[in-house]
Amino acid sequence: MEPRYTPQGYASTSAILTTLAIGILASFILPVFYIILGRLIPNIWFIAIIALLLGLGLGFFIDLGVKIGKLRNKKIVTIIAIFCGLFAFYIQWVLFDAIAYSRKGFTFNLNGNDLKFLAQDFVFLFTHPHILAQEIINLNEIGTFRIQGTGTVSGVLLWIIWAGEFLVIIDGAVYGVLNGRVIYPYSEINDDWMKRRKISHRIPLVENKETILEALNQRNFTVLQDQPSLINATDYSEVLIFESIGDPVKYISVVNVSNPTGKAKDKKLTSILKFYPLQNANV
User: How far apart are the first and last CA of the chain?
Assistant: First the structure.
């Protein structure tokens, strides 16, 4: 098994609370935009896209909490992402239902009294989940939108669509955090996240992963030396270095790059090594 960085599992109470607080705040705010966009463009495919964006947005803000709180426990981060995903899904339903049964319906033409009543309905539904559940059942019977070329969607099909919406939001949040800060190298010596070196090294294209692994295991770090002659190459490998001043351990990631046209849109990346540890290496 190739060596790689493994989070140390640090999870203090303050780190958890910081991450959770930011995640909960995002769970209140992001569903507002989700509902507004969904009502402005009631298209099932568009709603699927913004559901994914809602999940990824949650993941982004939870990841911000991970960075600030220095939380380094993947299991706890995953649990927080699932909880915030559930909470955001609940909040969007509370808001959707409050608007659906409001006196004016969905409109931006609201005065102070309208906003007051809407806020009261929101608080009431938020604190009475059993009533919200019954109203969701009622909405399912009459349907909430149409698919072009068919009638109003209701019943079993609508339950399936809502379940899919739920899974997309949860999966988006979990994907976001598990590909975020928590997997990046952390210097326990300096008690801070390692920083990626701004200048990357270009080396010849790695065609065989085992070859470079064997060289690194034998501490042959010359394979990582920058080769300026590759500056105009269309196929090469890039070495990303993560380090912290005074920490004897660095971590590298190696990515194969193919860019036959030189344009950013045609650039293809393939991960070869991710966060491979180098002890006392001069690179």
Answer: 23
